[in-house]
Design goal:
The structure holds two protein chains of two kinds. By secondary structure, chain A is mostly helical. In chain A, about 70% of the residues lie in helices and about 0% in strands. Chain B is built from 15 helices and two strands. In chain B, helix 4 (about 70-95) crosses helix 12 (about 305-315) and helix 5 (about 105-120) packs parallel to helix 7. The two termini of chain B are about 30 Å apart. The chains are: A mainly alpha, B mainly alpha.
Chain lengths: ~325, ~400
């Protein structure tokens, strides 16, 4: 009996950890999107829409490349990895273009950043919903990169269930966190990006092309959100549904703030949020009878509490939210 | 200070503040939204062509369905009502430099409380029952708006994030209140659930004494116009008076323009932040109350999904002016109502979202309109909010 209980407990723990990672991945990518944008002094509430564009483009590419004559043909497109690789790339590219669109509105047309973000969100919902085809089918979603090499009686088996059986995007996400941290704080690009976030005039005076850097960074920002969206439609869920991002873009924004605009902090915030969401489904499996609607409140309440408690200590880039006019225009 | 609240005449160079004379003067200010809508419709027509459908047929069906039949017109006015009120919930907050994305949650709270009051309170005459239910709905929305306001005032938690979170929280609480519980009875049904329905979870129907009276009985219509529409119009004028003719409204606008100057002039900025959000929430809560008491007769999950988002565009399109909001809410109400007819021509309903998003974009970026039509335009909606993150 005790053994059974222990087994159950290990199972629950591992399921919780895996569910935490699964729900954290899109939040981490969304948060990186927010950091890249806000470090460049552009507020990004359009993450939600950019993710939706990415999810849709990734999925539709997968659908197109899953057509019978392609999958059964002997061209390079018939290879699963090529099909899914191109699909993810499409999601990243279209997400990036959505980011660039946000940048054009904010930089070129001096639209209020929050309005521009709202436009991206509504357009995302509208365009993806308009072209969505519920009959579309794919030849499958992204498989795990490496399957668990240990057998179930091996002591390392449980560790393997956490470390392996994950798709490439999951590993890529954590790699992106490390790369972004390094790039932001250890490279010339990072120094310049942080400069235009804090004081674009000073950066401009020193010869940095503020607009070009903002365009580039917003493309990257959208690309990260697009990758997060592609994760949802090509890996986690495996299909596209209307409004499938379901508020994750907004939660990612909150994660940016309590990660204090730092990639590692944001990753920890996303994992915390992912853990709280994972917990609610596991509570039911663990036999705790609470209405799931009430349990599912917890992450949102925690976000508000943390925000109210933390914001005093976390500091946004000084120039975020304001349009910058280069000198001499 | 109350002596300087008169702001008649155009106030130039200010964001979010379009005075009545410019809106009603049919000047160039009106040209921007009109060209914006027109351009968005043209873009929509291209999307319809891309999907292989007929844009003329689709737009004809849209207009016919929304405006040209008694049934459609009634539906349009019914849909205008919550958009007008929740649009003003955005507009009032914008005036104070606050971005209230929480209209959705405030509206849900109003809907649920009205459903409870409409069913649980008995023995009142109709006028008293409606008054009590509407007041409670307004109060609920008001509280749901005031909390993020207080968090903003005292902890600097940005209202964009907190109101979004409050939307999620409100919708989950409402879902729980009407949930049917688990089949084996281990999880009891929610306190407001109507056990008599098994298909869709919702609250018990409101009593007849709580139903909003009908203003017109439209022949051949499934819905009749309730008096909520006129309440909403009256509120628009009341909000106009509050903003332009009272000390409170003056202080709201002062905080929106320059919180530091307002503080220096002795305005209680924290208090204004909270009370503005409370007023905004009250308007959205009222919208929710009207939806429950006038349209549905109960609260069911997702009954007003998307209204909060639409109200952002409705308010911005009107330059956050209460009277302008009447027209933009009517436009959006007509689009929503006409969607059903448009769908019959094979065009997906999301086209409306695209048109609305593009309209908002063109209004906020008049530079694009200027570029397309090679004209000079007065601008509204350009610039940034007074407050940034944190």
């Amino acid at each position: 009996m005790d053994v059974l209980e222990n087994l159950l407990r290990t199972t629950v723990i591992i399921a919780t950890i895996n569910a935490t990672i699964r729900s954290a991945v899109p939040l981490i990518l969304g948060a990186i999107s927010g950091i890249l944008s806000e470090r460049s002094s552009i507020v990004n509430i359009g993450i939600e829409g950019m993710m939706l564009f990415g999810a849709f483009a990734g999925y539709m590419t997968n659908v197109a490349l899953s057509a019978d004559h392609i999958v059964n043909g002997d061209t390079i497109l018939a290879i699963t990895d090529v099909r899914l690789g191109l699909s993810v790339a499409a999601g990243v590219l279209v997400g990036g273009l959505a980011g660039l669109f946000h940048a054009v509105l904010c930089v070129q047309y001096k639209v209020d950043h929050i309005i521009s973000g709202t436009v991206v969100n509504i357009l995302g919902l509208g365009i993806t919903g308009y072209f969505y085809d519920s009959q579309a089918q794919t030849a499958g979603k992204i498989p795990p990169l490496i399957s668990n090499p240990w057998h179930s009686d091996d002591p390392l088996y449980n560790l393997g269930r956490i470390v392996f059986d994950k798709s490439l995007i999951t590993y890529l996400t954590f790699f992106v966190v490390i790369t972004t941290t390094f790039a932001l704080f250890r490279t010339v690009w990072g120094l310049r990006t942080r400069a235009i976030g804090e004081n674009p005039r000073a950066a401009d005076t020193l010869g940095i092309n503020v607009y070009r850097l903002q365009y580039f960074n917003l493309f990257m920002s959208g690309a990260m959100a697009g990758l997060g969206g592609a994760y949802l439609s090509l890996d986690d869920v495996g299909i596209f549904e209307r409004n499938m991002v379901a508020g994750r873009g907004f939660i990612a924004l909150a994660v940016v703030i309590f990660g204090n605009w730092h990639p590692v902090g944001a990753m920890l915030g996303a994992l915390l949020f992912g853990f709280l969401s994972a917990l609610q489904s596991q509570l039911q499996f663990a036999g705790i009878n609470a209405p799931h609607q009430i349990v599912s409140l917890v992450p949102y309440v925690v976000t508000v509490v943390v925000l109210a408690g933390f914001v005093g200590r976390s500091r946004p880039p000084a120039h975020v939210g304001q349009s910058y006019e280069v000198e001499g225009t | 200070m109350a002596t300087v609240t008169d702001t008649s005449g155009p106030t130039s160079g200010r964001n979010w503040d379009i005075s009545p004379s410019t809106i009603l003067g049919f000047g160039q200010t009106l040209l921007t939204p009109i060209l914006a809508i027109f351009t968005a419709l043209v873009a929509g027509a291209i999307l319809i062509l891309l999907a292989g459908r007929d844009p003329v047929a689709a737009y004809t069906a849209l207009v016919e369905g929304a405006l040209l039949s008694p049934r459609g017109l009634t539906g349009t006015l019914i849909k205008t009502t919550p958009l007008l009120l929740s649009g003003m919930a955005l507009g009032v907050a914008f005036k104070a430099g606050l971005f209230n994305i929480g209209a959705q949650g405030q509206l849900i709270m109003g809907s649920v409380v009205a459903a409870w009051a409409g069913a649980a309170i008995t023995g009142l005459p109709a006028w008293a029952h409606i008054l009590v239910a509407m007041s409670l709905a307004t109060l609920a929305g008001s509280i749901w708006g005031a909390i993020p306001g207080a968090l903003k005032a005292y902890t600097d938690a940005h209202e964009v994030i907190t109101t979004i979170m409050f939307n999620f929280i409100a919708s989950r609480i409402a879902e729980w209140l009407i949930s049917l519980g688990s089949a084996d009875g281990a999880i009891p049904p929610g306190p407001l659930a109507d056990e008599n329905t098994t298909a869709i979870s919702r609250t018990k129907p409101i009593l007849e004494s709580a139903a909003l009276p009908k203003a017109f009985i439209t022949p051949g219509s499934v819905e009749d116009l309730h008096i909520g529409f006129f309440i909403a119009i009256a509120m628009a004028f009341l909000v106009l008076i509050i903003l332009n003719r009272t000390t409170f409204g003056f202080e709201i606008r002062m905080v929106g323009l320059n919180p530091n100057a307002a503080r220096y002039a002795g305005v209680n900025v924290k208090g204004i932040t909270i009370s503005t959000m409370a007023l905004a929430g009250a308007l959205a809560g009222m919208a929710g109350g009207i939806q429950t008491l006038g349209v549905n007769g109960y609260y069911e999950a997702n009954q007003s999904l998307g209204l909060g988002f639409d109200s952002i565009t409705v308010s911005l399109l009107a330059g956050n002016h209460p009277i302008g909001t009447i027209f933009s809410a009517f436009l959006f109400g007509a689009m929503d109502e006409g969607t059903r007819g448009m769908q019959l021509t094979g065009v997906a309903k999301e086209l409306i979202l695209v048109i609305q998003a593009l309209t908002l974009m063109f209004v906020a970026a008049p530079g694009i309109i200027r570029y397309i039509y090679r004209i000079k335009l007065k601008t509204i909606g350009e610039g940034t909010f007074g407050s940034s993150w944190g």
